Amino acid sequence: MSLYTMTISEFLYHCKLRINNSLNDERIQSKVAILGYTPERLNEGKKLLDDAEQACVVFDKEHGDVVAAFDQRNTEKENADRSYNTFVAIGRIALKDDQAAITTLLLGKSKPRTLSGWLKRTGNFYNNLLSNDKWLAAYASYNITEEQLREGLNQVKNVSSYAEVIMREKGDAQSATKARDAKLDALNEWVMDYLSIVKIALDDEPQLLEKLGIVVKS
User: Fold this and answer.
1) The pTM is what?
2) Which domain holds residue 22?
3) pLDDT tens, residue by residue, 159-172
4) Which of 50, 63, 158, 212 registers the highest number of CB atoms within 10 A of its CB?
């Protein structure tokens, strides 16, 4: 048994089986204690197991937070993109004779595929539009208010803020991964040493080895 030959859940299951059954069986305790694995030392293994399990819980949470942040960002972007598409479509009509507006607002250009390009394009669109009274008046003739356009800009800012959240969550997830791996490595080292001792200490009592999940060839 080793961390590197099975899934993490399988590894933790076998560790729990061997450590807990050792702590709960006086016969096993008395045999392994002769070779230095006292109850105190077994509890050290139990602490490593508890720490590894908790690190796995944190790992799952942090990686779940990354997924949730991506989902929320995508939802925000869909909403912002819907508003932006509407305002661009109206602009192509309201400002069709204003070449400066068409050029500045990029009304004739296709949208960038990257998020950074999209953020730059939409942010510039709203900021340039909101700073030009003539263009705002053209939009007003189609019942598009400055307040609606500012709300569109806020939607873009929300997308940008979630991009920052994602980067932060990714950092937390990476830290959780390193912490989990370190805890699992420590547990693996302890368990592998203990299993070697167990096979020596319980060599004459195969039923106790089987209680620890160690298959004994007949």
Assistant:
1) 0.79
2) 3-211
3) 999 988 999 999 99
4) 212
